[in-house]
What we know:
Blueprint: E1 2-8, H1 10-14, H2 18-27, E2 31-38, H3 42-48, H4 58-65, E3 70-77, H5 80-88, H6 101-105, E4 114-116, H7 120-130
Antiparallel strand pairs: 1-3, 1-4, 2-3
The chain binds 2'-deoxyadenosine-5'-diphosphate (DAT) and magnesium ion (MG).
Amino acid sequence: MERTLAIVKPDAVERGHSGEILKRIEAQGLKISALKKIHLTRAQAERFYDVHKERPFYQSLCEYMTSGPVVIAVLSGEQAITRWRTLMGATDPAKAAPGTIRKDLGVDVQSNAVHGSDAPETAAREIAFFFSTTELLT
Length: 138
Ligand code: DAT
Ligand code: MG
């Protein structure tokens, strides 16, 4: 059993895709172990994405991630990290495989609908960033 963090980003929440994305997650057999909707502060966005702080898109990414509410979930299951990344598709929706969330619901490389942890260490850090252990069910 593995856990990962999923975020439905502001563009997808705004366009009413939260339900569709959660439906795809459950249809894949991943469990939703925790769920909430929040509006990130600028400080939270900057801390969450601090691995990208040297990248040219960092400020714009933080601006975008605070542009509206997000839906944040902890997913669990066998190989949850890879399975969620596969469902998401490549970072750039234009390059994402057919049938993936980013291909179907993403707008561009920044407004790409969803976030997913990329490794066990990042998943642990990202889950702890938003949830206490007592909030994680199943
Ligand atoms: P991923 O979200 O697929 O793990 P990442 O960790 O490389 O991709 O980047 C984090 C987010 O930063 C990504 O979801 C959207 C944004 N981003 C990445 N590359 C970008 C670029 N070239 N221009 C604008 N935003 C970018
Ligand atoms: Mg990443």
